[in-house]
Amino acid sequence: MALENTQIQDKLTETFGESVMHFRQERDIFTFEVSSDTITPVILFLKNEETLNFHFLTDLCGIHYPDSDVNEQFAVVYHLHNWVENKRIRIKSFIHGENPEIKSVSNIFLTANWMERETYDFFGINFIGHPQLKRILNMDEMISFPMRKEFPMEDSGRTDKDDRFFGRTPSNC
After folding, report:
1. Which of 37, 153, 163, 164 sits in a 20 to 30 Å window from 6, CA-based?
2. Where in the cell is it found (predicted)?
3. Residue 148: Cβ within 10 Å count
4. Is the pLDDT of residue 173 over 60?
5. How many whole angstroms separate alpha carbon 144 and alpha carbon 49?
6. What is the mean pLDDT of residues 75-90?
7. Domain 22-150 falls in which CATH fold?
8. What is the DSSP string of 96-127?
């Protein structure tokens, strides 16, 4: 019998109550939100519950919403896959903008190690309990986080990039 969205939702709400919310189907993936303080037990439950079997972390990434309420300025998104049923889910957890941090899941999924480091490197989200949270792609000396919306798209001091060379003029921008 195929794993249905209602089964996943029922198991999660039965176990975690209001910490799991906003269940919806978005295109071909079942999506829901989890409060940041319960993300680790929820992911552990999804992995260990024998009727769910989400044993594969496909992706983990960050999102920056600078115009949102300070409590929801950042989100960490997890994609899990159940290989047996070929079922994918997306979990979104919002975190505070002034001190963006969330518990690490690298002790649950070893693949989360590099994904959390990359998310830290580009968004500045601190993963509490990560074994070696440091920059992975950018220079260690870098003091900003380039995927945050306040990071400038181009270096205003560069003279080698003229918009006219790229088909961009003030009239068609």
Report:
1. 37
2. Cell membrane
3. 17
4. no
5. 40
6. 96
7. Beta Polymerase; domain 2 (3.30.460)
8. -SSS-EEE--TTT-TTHHHHHHHHHHHH--EE
Domain ranges of the chain: 22-150
Q: Assess contact for 92 and 75: CB atoms under 8 A.
A: yes
Helix (H) or strand (E) holding 6: helix 5-16
Return the structure tokens found at 141.
Answer: 């000396």
The answer for residues whose C-beta is within 8 angstroms of residue 23's C-beta and 6 or more apart is 5, 9, 30, 31, 32
Rounded CA separation 36/29 (Å): 21
User: 102, 94 in Cβ contact below 8 A?
Assistant: no
Which residues, 6 or more positions from 71, have their beta carbon under 8 angstroms from its beta carbon?
94, 96, 97
Structure-token pair, residue 18: 């209001």
Work out the number of other CB atoms within 10 angstroms of the CB of residue 7: 14
> How far apart (Å, rounded) are the C-alpha atoms in residues 39 and 2?
25
Q: How many residues does the chain have?
A: 173
Q: For residues 76 and 63, what is the distance between their CA atoms, to the nearest angstrom?
A: 6
